[in-house]
Amino acid sequence: MTGSSNSTRLDNATLALFQDDNTSVAISVIYMVILAVNLGGNGLSMWLLLFRTTPKSTSIIFMINLTFTDLALGTALPFQIAYQLRGYHWHLGPRMCSFLTLVFYTNMYCSILTMMAISIDRYLGIVRPMLFRRNRESKSIALISCFLMWGVVLIVLHPLMTTDLTFDIPELGITTCFDVLKKDMLPTTVVVLSTPSWRLAKQNQANVEQTTRVSRSSLTDTMVLNPVISKLAGKLVVLASASPRRLEILRNAGLRFEVVPSWFKETIDKGLFRAPHEYAVETAKQKALEVARRMPVKHLKTPDIVIGADTIVAVDGMILEKPVDKCDAYRMLSSLSGKEHSVFTGVAIVLCHEKENEEVDYQLIDFYEETKVKFADLSEDMLWEYINSGEPMDKAGGYGIQALGGMLVEYVHGDFLNVVGFPLNHFCKQLDLIYNHWTSPSEQENVSLHLSHNGSHCPSDVTQPSPILSTQCNQSPSSSAKSNSSLSPRVSSPSASQKHNSQDGPASSPVHKGKRKDTESELGESSWTLVNSLSTHPKDGPESTTVQQMPSRGHVSVTEHEDSQPITEDLQRIVEVMDGFKASKALFTASDLGVFDLLQSRPGSDASQVAQEIKASVRGTECLLEACVSLGLLKSKERTCQRPVYENSDLAARFLRSSAPLSLHGYIQHCNKTVWPLFSHLESAVREGTHQHEKAFGKKSKDVFQDAYCNSQEVKLRFMRAMHSVAEVTGAAVAEAFDLSGYKTACDLGGCTGAMAYKFTKAHPGLSVTVFDLPAILEMSEHFQPLHTDNRVSFVAGDFFKDELPKADLYILARILHDWSDEKVHFLLRKIADACTPGCGLLLSEIFLDEDRRGPSRGLLQALSMSEGKQRSATEYGLLLKNYGFITTHVTTTKESFCGCAVLIAETVLDTQRPYSALQSLNMLAQTEGMERTEGQYADILSKHGFGNINVVRTMNFLDAFMAVKM
Ligand SMILES: C[S@@+](CC[C@H](N)C(=O)[O-])C[C@H]1O[C@@H](n2cnc3c(N)ncnc32)[C@H](O)[C@@H]1O
Predict the structure, then answer these.
(1) Domain boundaries, the chain
(2) I need a labelling partner for 932 at 20 to 30 A (CA). Which of 162, 318, 698, 861 fits?
(3) Tell me: the pLDDT tens digits for 465-511?
(4) pTM for the full model?
């Protein structure tokens, strides 16, 4: 090798370029043609210019110079051709490499400069003929110009002569000449590729960017694919995704693959997953498996590896995928504005092993990568400009960080490519684990058991992929690796139902234990090994797939048909709903016993320490803590030969400890002590169609607030804490939903502790808010005042059914109307309408039901408490307000969310043309009561009553609101 020793190795994409023989031959042929034309044409031209042309004008001098540079350039071409035909191997030594590079570039630049000089000469000849005439006699100017350009170019390019431009690539056994620059030649990047072969130009740019990026974390990380790529040679690798970004990332990495987009419809219910990444992983799995199953049947070839991926954005517990329209994009982007969010890409690698009997064994390895991205505060103008660019439409979360969307981003923590669509680095590490760190089957109890069950044996060929076992977990290349099996790729069942308890890290990873414990239920405890294999029988056709599962205590075979949902998936859904009450009660109990507060002040306590502090049994505490870990509320850490220790999860620290600014502690207490007893009498409530206060609390109550809550200080305080905590969490979003600068005074009817009122005054500096609530409630409200009170918030005690309402420009009804009977709702709305003067507004904040009344569950489940009121859809609320002359002008969604639900806001204005009397509206409601309607039917009703379109944005609502303005 002639090149100096190189400390840096090249990435695979670059190596692949040097191995591309076809292209190098094609370029060499082109160079040969150019050489022939160059020598012939320029030789003739030189002869004519030197010997057949007189006088030697400035133009002719420049032409001679130009021909000379072109001829000199031509003389360098044979060396370049030979170099390329030798597979980019330079054998003439570093000096010759430097010299020819100098010749190449000197002539190129001199040629350009000469053409510039000719142009100037022509320009002067035409535009400034007099000046030109004076100078043209002096040919020396032209000659000096030529010598000057040669001199300048040679001085500038002189360092090329003193630098070794060769580079050894031991992996390919070649030495390049000026195709790879060593890192000491450029100040910032690790390895930069230059472009004597023009085809490399674009590729190089990508590589430079990528190399720079990866080098920030670890240079060695970039190399893990290198030994793997040769193992993949000759294998059919399939990408089950049509995303151009994923395609580009993998192509740039030098991976050769076919693209077979998955037909899997991304319709998995997100509610089934405890954490957003589980959803992304499951979708990736389903995409990859669909292609892996389809190919042997439809394409009549079995891939060796299928790669599936799914990228989602998660913010405030919500999963954002691709926006369906501009409004959706707006909703997404405004929910990201000014906040940090997570981008998760779930990746599934399906390894297909064709067996002799035409069966195919599938093994699945999945993992995910999380990258945190912070958006700048986005103005409305900026948001819409970006949305109107069209870029958000096919991108998860509504933005593309690699393009215009990059301008919205303040910082990125983690793998940038993960945000673009594929976590290349993590993927390479997983491939490396699969292909280069294989453990023999005898060491792999679970897998060997599984494989023997499927009649397949671990291959003797080490290039054959093999499941990685828990025994390898300590060899993780990264302690923060987010493979579901921590370091080792999780090899798992293909069914969505077989969701793993995918707490991060080895301690909680089910793979670590070699088996998973499914939810305990009346169906019996089931404990399955994670490793499953799926055998497809092409002759059975695409519809039939056999899933063989390996229970650790006996074998179970389940046959699934692709035209129906897998049975296990349905069961999982039922089991999750069935067990929902256990999860709720575990949360309530942990909260009630102060577990989250304790672990906040003493993280790292074990079960007996916690038990002592909360005055409970060790056994019970241990079960409770483990259950909370499984629900993602706590985190546990294993300690060698000792009991595990516990600490709050981020979720618990933010929302469950009682002193957290966004604590839901008060609301959880209310659910435990008030809602729970009511729901334990649900059967009677459904039979009788009434609330069950008497059965639950032993007291009759006509008015739930005055009779049930206000009679006991304890109950009243608990109720107030509940309202306060929800208002603290959701209030700001409601308050900020509208521009209320036109209003000076507001009255929050049933404003309780004033938490919502403070949110309004904070959001609107010109607004004063009067909190109007029952005297019994307001006498306790001082317990809830913020540290810094605001004299724009005042409190007036009264009963909104009996007493005169305080005068205000804007009336706020937050979570009020759903509690009351139609009669009382109409009475209250009439009172408000009467109190309103032209220009007044009404802001309504409630859970809005979907128009088809199929959701959100939160609203429909709340209706089961059988208060005298009811839950309504946006249209129903619109109709209700319309009865009092209020027209909805628009509905929008607030960006804050609660428990994955967003707030829907509608703006209404008074329709002075159609004032309905309270009686008329009561009659109308009486006719409609109890009927279920589609959105279309509601639209019909509305149009009959002269209402225009109400623009409703559907969300999973926690609180919905209307804005009404009296004209
Ligand atoms: C479900 S809470 C809503 C609290 C608050 N608006 C919020 O969103 O956080 C209902 C409120 O209405 C108040 N309320 C009930 N009946 C009332 C009445 N007749 N007059 C005034 N306030 C009443 C209750 O005391 C309670 O504070």
Answers:
(1) 12-199, 226-506, 581-660, 709-965
(2) 318
(3) 333 222 222 333 333 334 433 333 333 333 333 333 333 332 233 22
(4) 0.44
